[in-house]
Amino acid sequence: MKHMYIFSMNHGMSKSAVSDSLACEKSSLPQPNNLPGSFQEAKHLISPLLMPLQKYDACINDCVLYRDTKEKQFVTLQSCPVCNEPRTKNGITQKRFTYMPVGPRLSRWFGTTNLCKLLYANRLSVNGTVKDFTDGKLYSSWFQPGGVFEGVPESLAIPLSLFTDGVNPNKHMTSSKSMWPIILTWINLPIDIRQLLGPMLLVGVIPSGIKGSEPKSLEPYLELLIDELLSLTEFTVYNQYEAAPVTVKVALLQFLCDIPAFSKLFHLSGHGALRSCPYCTEAGQHCKHLHKTIHNSNRRFLPADDPLRTADDFGSVEQREKPAPYSPENEIQLREKYDRKPNNNQKSKLQKETGLKGKYSLLRLPYHNRMQQMQPDAMHTLADFIGHLLDALTGKHSTTKVQKCEQSFGRFNDVWNSFPDSAVIQDPRPTKKRKTTKDTSTEIPHSVPWSLSKEQIKEADRRASEICYTDVQDITPGPHFSKPWTLRTMNSKLQFVTSGGLEWCVKGFLPPTQEETLFFLLNVLKRMITPVLKECDVQQLQDDVHTALCLLEKDFPLSLQNLTTHLIHHMVDGLLDFGPVYGRWLFPYERANGWISRQCLRKGVEESTVMETYVIYDWCVHMVLSQQFKPSEVFSGESRLVDLAEKLSSEQTETCIQMIPDQHDQATSRKEKSTLKKSKLTPQMMDAMFRFYVNVMAVNVMSFQDSVMEDHRSCSVVDNCGRTVQYHGKGFKRKTASVVKIPSVSGVQFAEILYFLSHQMNNCFQDWVVLNEFPLATKENGFYCFEPTSVRQRLMHVSLLSQPLVHVRKEGLLWVLNHC
């Protein structure tokens, strides 16, 4: 077991390495022994425990799978009935698809006690808040009269979501390859479980096309999945929790993809088309100067009486209503009309008018409703939007093309008229021609109101290099404006905004109008991606987002008004239905794609090797989650999967489905407590602790230790959203001490953590901190600042602290960036 666990968990470990390890261990143990001597022997030994795999030959052009169905008999064909391409070449199948059925894995889940009881546990929720997709209105509608799960208990309903995207396992562009994994997730499971690769259900990897190109169609592969889902609509499994057979219902009700994947999945137009929005019938406008489609319809999302609809700055009055989506009936009619067109020219013309490209296989599902089951991908959308904003600030949207576009709409006339005739705006980015040592690009005039000058970019880089981030952020301080690759990941772009770093770096550089618009926009973006939303605040947030994007259209160039900007309107409008975007991030799926790409060791047949490894990984995950194998007893080190398995087996699973332990009890699992320094409590400390337990925690103190254990390193706490928050003491591994906000009746006050204390009360450890308390903070230019001199030291429980704050030390003051 442990060898297979190491093989599946270590990315890119070869089978020969496992064989060598097994052979070495077999020869070292007393002879004779039953240890397998190679990977193949070990796999043969556990093969009865592995999930079955189904292998199908596929057309090289992705027309069909050679399998028999009720409607078609293809298994004996030797050529494709659509394109007439041969099934084999030189006696070898040209393309093969490996499929891992869903039904056996669902049956195994219900047959495992500690996994099955998750579905019967009580959900922790607070009235008036939305934390996950399961708190949204759409999820509730599934169980109401007329819903797909009407009359079905939630514990016996299996709503699934589907993710697919192109993956290139080769790092070199000369050998590019695009294969498409199909991953299902169980929506009923808590967010910290369903977003792990183990509980995810990888059903197959669609092979790439000729010479590594994208598959021409996903339809034959999706039809295989749809056939199984239709057969599993209602099926019987043995429920270990109830110790009896039960009938469960399966439905595919959510799709998590980016825009190119949605286009391929639902037969929609691409992001550059005039009708590129998959959520409404809004038509963009092609700009011949920018050579792209712009969407300058932001004011349509405003109320009818909003003053911005008639503002003179836009050059026209907006009287159109909010763009409406296609109704399911109308969409079906248009897709059927597309399929009936006699030639490709007429089909292409209809596609440009409607944005639809015919019927697709998912329509076979009786409950399918595309508009209710897809939502904009917040990860790519917001990261791309922030990247475009950074490009505008650094001058990449101040070129000749942008100038001609603005002049064609009669915008910023005072800006263009102020330029001398010799000041020609050119694209500052280097061309893709042969590299030259001399830069021939013309300087960008500073009078462009949405970009920074060279001196301002240097100052912004200096400010960005001085920011002290916390462990929550993945950003390394650096020159993010002159060297944009320092923010190359999507997560770093999002965190640069949410941490207040972007606002801090450009403060005071833009004209007042543009700066006010930009900061208002950054503020609403922060509010959009919070993991917990209050229902009473959502309407105001939606209004603010629509207004901010209208102001962006007014004060910044139209080159920013692409499909990405337009999708933000739909994203915020669906918060109450779909829940916070935090529960629909694609980051976990991108990590799953990373695991898949690292398993592609055998070139040419990458897809099959991935599935052969995944079937072992799937079994190892099941053994760990069911606690039949405990890696912590064999290996040292921490693992999110192992920690999750220990939580699943705990008694708290019955009452806490979200796997969020009480933040007052985080110290119970700290193994190094016996090695920490012990010290006696002073009377003042004992009094403060006792009053906190009785008055704040409202517990009956049964036992109270008069000593504490000191820890000068760090402390981990799980917040109410299930995220781990890491605090650092002063001098820990050269990290700066965590700066936090503390409760104060006099005003806003911050403190710096010195070290941690662990106190035992009622046989449970409680984490405390000793702080350096700073003077009261004042707010200047939108940020809190204060002198970082200690007023006094103070003892405080960790539950009273805010999360560690991003800050900057400048000119004898400490500025807090992400607490406004």
The total strand number stands at 25
Number of helices: 26
Helix/strand-derived class? alpha+beta
- Indicate the percent of residues in helices: 25-40%
Query: Into how many domains do the coordinates divide?
Result: 4
End-to-end C-alpha gap = 52 Å
Provide the β-strand percentage band: 15-25%
Any idea what the shape is? globular
User: Ranges with pLDDT <50 over ≥5 residues?
Assistant: 421-429, 432-445, 651-674
The major sheet is characterized as: 6 strands, antiparallel
Mean pLDDT: 85
Determine Rg (CA atoms, Å).
29 Å
Please give a handful of descriptors for the protein shown.
globular, single chain, five-stranded mixed sheet, six-stranded antiparallel sheet, alpha+beta, 820 residues
Describe the fold and architecture.
With about 800 residues, the protein is an alpha+beta fold. The chain has four domains: about 50-260 and about 585-645, no CATH class; about 260-280 and about 325-370, no CATH class; about 380-430 and about 440-585, no CATH class; about 660-815, no CATH class. Helix content is about 30%, strand content about 15%. The protein is built from 26 helices and 25 strands. Strands 14, 15, 18, 19, 20 and 23 form a six-stranded antiparallel sheet that branches. α13 packs across α17 and α20 (about 535-555) packs antiparallel against α21. It is globular. The two termini are about 50 Å apart. Mean pLDDT is about 85; it is low at about 420-430, about 430-445 and about 650-675.
